[in-house]
Automatic annotation (TrEMBL):
Name this protein carries in UniProt: Homoserine dehydrogenase
Family per similarity comment: Belongs to the homoserine dehydrogenase family.
Chemical reaction(s) catalysed: L-homoserine + NADP(+) = L-aspartate 4-semialdehyde + NADPH + H(+)
Pathway field: Amino-acid biosynthesis; L-methionine biosynthesis via de novo pathway; L-homoserine from L-aspartate: step 3/3; Amino-acid biosynthesis; L-threonine biosynthesis; L-threonine from L-aspartate: step 3/5
Alphabetized PANTHER family for the sequence: HOMOSERINE DEHYDROGENASE
Keywords: Amino-acid biosynthesis, Methionine biosynthesis, NADP, Oxidoreductase, Threonine biosynthesis
EC number: 1.1.1.3
PROSITE patterns named in the record: ACT, HOMOSER_DHGENASE
Active site: 197
Domain spans labelled ACT: 342-422
Length: 422
């Protein structure tokens, strides 16, 4: 089986290397030799040592008749969408690790692909085989939730803040120095990368449609040391969670920082690692842990798709031979989310302020579960910081309370909220 690698960077280079290094084993497992015959790059002058011929002539490679599978590892959305559509229309198999592309165009690509193999195991959680797990291993189950840490960069930053006492800025700088974060980290710390992965998984778990702009996405940029201290005092860990949950006949999809009880397995997933919990009605809770990124771990997933294609193993792209329901499940409106909440409020240190806050909360259906006021530090001129957690509440009520509190004279900074998950 002859393979062209479109994009020979961090992942593409490793795909070529592992295909060559593990050739005997891969041939034995797939029943065919899988040979990387050409790689396409943008800049031919870059120094690389990968042992396959390279070109910058994409059109020439797309026109070749001797390629059986194209592996897209360039990144981006519009350009790879155009290229992959062209390849699939010619009935040639495709493998990609491109979650951004799939977050926007997975159903169009499914329509174009029809029975032509299209592998995307590497697009979610790098080395963790979560796509195959959901699509094959857990296919007997109604999935009640898929919840996890799907972005290693944010998890590294939060772990550094929790364990090393670093500020967000310092933890981000260290992530950048270690090569875990891009120069522009928005995509990772803003929650968008995790949202792309969540959308892909939710297509398999629930058959739901949805694009990034349809779901709640919040990042970790506003988490402070105070939030970390509060979390620790109350036996919580802060994690950036991607959550897909079935709520009656709707599906809730959201990505945001969350307080997670310290004893939960997901709370123990530290550093750049990823961890995903899937709950099914027959199997109960299952948990998957491993490297969510990195050239070699991601290449491992890319090659597993190539081996499936060589073996002629064909699974429907999102796991459904026929549509799941006549009417697809709908996404739950963001205002209808129900969970527990944590609030951080900086207010004037005056008599009566606390009573006013609790009044506003109770008038808007928020019931307080716990409250903490840290002793005021010397030189702390900007008021006093209060921390609350609530019982299960409606997102719409929480938004209203934040809006009302923001307008109060005694409130010194916009109130900050984190959702609590278990
Ligand atoms: N890195 C990871 O850990 C990881 C994990 C999971 C998924 N992914 C996904 O895997 C894909 C590749 O990521 P990566 O980290 O390997 O990216 P990368 O290191 O930036 O490599 C991209 C490669 O594509 C080539 N390229 C870009 N635009 C091109 C164009 N228009 N024509 C021809 N070649 C082009 C680049 O050429 P030059 O080398 O000449 O610049 C480079 O070889 C992305 O979709 C990413 O989201 C990555």
């Amino acid at each position: 089986m002859r393979v062209a690698i479109l994009g020979v960077g961090t992942v593409g280079e490793q795909v070529a290397k592992i295909l060559i290094q593990n050739q005997k084993l891969i041939t034995a497992r797939s029943g065919k030799e899988i040979t990387p015959v050409i790689g396409v790059v943008k800049n031919l002058n870059k120094k690389r040592d990968i042992g396959i011929p390279l070109t910058d002539d994409m059109d020439a490679v797309l026109k070749r008749d001797d390629i059986d599978v194209y592996v897209e590892l360039m990144g981006g959305v519009d350009y790879p969408y155009r290229i992959i559509s062209e390849i699939l229309k010619r009935k040639k198999a495709v493998v990609t690790a491109n979650k951004a592309l799939l977050a926007y165009h997975r159903y169009e690509l499914q329509n174009i692909a029809q029975d032509t193999p299209f592998g995307f195991e590497a697009s979610v959680a790098g080395g963790i085989p979560i796509i195959k797990t959901l699509r094959e291993g857990l296919s007997a189950n109604h999935i009640s939730s898929v919840k996890g840490i799907m972005n290693g960069t944010s998890n590294y930053i939060l772990t550094s803040m929790m364990q090393g006492g670093a500020s967000f800025e310092r933890a981000l700088k260290s992530a950048q120095e270690l090569g875990y974060a891009e120069a522009d980290p928005t995509f990772d710390v803003g929650g968008f990368d995790a949202a792309h992965k969540l959308l892909i998984l939710s297509s398999i778990a629930y058959g739901v449609y949805g694009k990034p702009e349809d779901i709640l996405i919040e990042g970790i940029e506003s988490i402070t040391k105070e939030d970390i201290f509060f979390a620790q005092d109350f036996e919580y860990i802060i994690k950036l969670l991607a959550i897909a949950k079935k709520v009656d006949d709707k599906v809730e999809l959201r990505v945001h920082p969350a307080l997670v009880a310290k004893d939960k397995m997901i709370a123990k997933v530290d550093g750049v690692m990823n961890g995903i919990s899937v709950v099914g009605d027959a199997v109960g809770e299952t948990m998957f842990y491993g490297p969510g990124a990195g050239g070699s771990a991601t290449a491992s997933a890319v090659i597993s798709d190539l081996i499936d294609i060589a073996r002629d193993v064909k699974s429907p792209m999102f796991g459904y031979k026929i549509p799941l329901e006549l009417t697809p499940l709908e996404l739950l409106a963001q205002d209808e989310i129900r969970t527990k909440y944590y609030f951080r409020l900086t207010v004037d240190d005056k008599m009566g302020v606390l009573a006013k806050i609790t009044n506003i909360m109770s008038e808007n259906n928020l019931s307080i579960d716990s409250f903490l006021q840290k002793p005021k530090l010397k030189g702390d001129e900007n008021g006093v910081t209060l921390f609350f957690t609530t019982h299960t509440s409606l997102e719409l009520d929480v938004k209203r309370v934040i809006e009302i509190l923001t307008k109060q004279e005694f409130v010194k900074e916009k109130p900050f909220m984190i959702r609590i998950e278990g």
